[in-house]
Amino acid sequence: MQINKIYKPDHFDQYTIIPLAIFRQKGITMAASGLYAWLFSHDSNHDITMAFIGGHFKDGKDAINSRIKELESFGFLVRESVRENGKFAGYNFRMCVPTTIAEKTVAVKTAAEKTVAGKTVAVNPHQSNIYNIQDNIQDHIQYHNKSNNKSNKEE
Q1: CATH code for position 91
Q2: Domain for residue 129, yes or no?
Q3: Separation between Cα atoms, residue 85 and residue 143, nearest integer Å
Q4: pLDDT tens sequence across 16-33
């Protein structure tokens, strides 16, 4: 089995024709759509590794990984881990061109099934201290107002 390859529709191999869906997707970052366009510009025989991507862009490994996860969450990319003899050998990136909401849903479900170690990441976790901070600010304002009133009365 081949490792570190991009799989995309054959008729896109010789040209960099970027599907409009990536640019029309609401809520996706420019960095993710740019990475998608860059990945789509490579032919299927080109080795794509995280080191290769990192060597091309100024962004670090974590930023690139974040953009890849973003593309997976929107259904534009499916990252498949490849194992040889039980050991991790690399990733294959399957470029998706979802044109309908139904296709995006299938691609997102496929990507979600392949989460690392079956763990999910909490999106925007609840912050328990936001009310405490607001209360502390109000207390601080009231304290200073009282002390300013005392100093004004003494004059």
Answers
A1: 1.10.10
A2: no
A3: 68
A4: 778 888 888 889 999 999
pTM, rounded to two decimals: 0.55
**Alpha carbon 46 to its chain's center:** 23
3-state secondary structure the chain: CCCCCEECCHHHCCCCCCCHHHHHCCCCCHHHHHHHHHHHCCCCCCCCCHHHHHHHCCCCHHHHHHHHHHHHHHCCEEEEEEEECCEEEEEEEEECCCCCHHHHHHHHHHHHHCCHHHCCCCCCCCCCCHHHHHHHHHHHHHHHHHHHHHHHHHC
Q: Which domain holds residue 96?
A: 6-122
